[in-house]
Design a protein that fits this description.
Length: 164
């Protein structure tokens, strides 16, 4: 943005928010689908081990070991699910700010919100960034989120309609 004409503080400009989010260690995971799957799988395995340890404290663990392992397996999906939701919310916020015709910003505090209408050239530039850079990330996150949700729901159905 041309800083002489733009009243929006530099750290609140959508393009700069995109750059900062891209540089972030956590929010850069979904840039490629493989790296996101790898990171979420690591979290899933780690949380699975924690959930197995927690469920092993149960009296019935020795008699129903398969049930508790499966229960830990499906309940540990909650951690990758929460991580993917957080990543989606962050990237979706930047996507909305990039594609919006107006930029809401704060000059000095929470009580003085202002709105600035983007010039056409800037709107086109940020729209291009949103469609080329951010939209594929959101698509990957939705796909991963859907897979995790399907696995979790199948686990719920498994325990609802089976007699272990």
């Amino acid at each position: 943005m041309n800083e002489s004409k733009c009243p929006v503080p530099k750290d609140q400009q959508p393009t700069n928010e995109f750059i900062e989010l891209s540089k972030s260690k956590i929010f850069s995971w979904p840039k490629t689908k493989k790296s996101l799957i790898l990171v979420l799988t690591k979290f899933w395995i780690g949380s699975f081990l924690i959930f197995v340890v927690i469920s092993s404290g149960s009296i019935y663990f020795k008699t129903f070991i398969l049930k508790y392992i499966l229960l830990s397996f499906f309940s540990s999906l909650s951690i990758p699910l929460l991580i993917s939701i957080r990543l989606y919310l962050g990237w979706n916020h930047v996507f909305k700010r990039l594609t919006s015709e107006r930029v809401e910003y704060e000059e000095s505090g929470w009580y003085d919100g202002q709105i600035w209408i983007k010039p056409l050239v800037l709107k086109e530039k940020e729209s291009l960034i949103a469609s080329i850079e951010v939209k594929p990330i959101l698509k990957n996150l939705i796909q991963i989120f859907s897979i995790i949700l399907i696995l979790a729901l199948s686990g719920i159905l498994l325990f609802q309609y089976s007699n272990f």
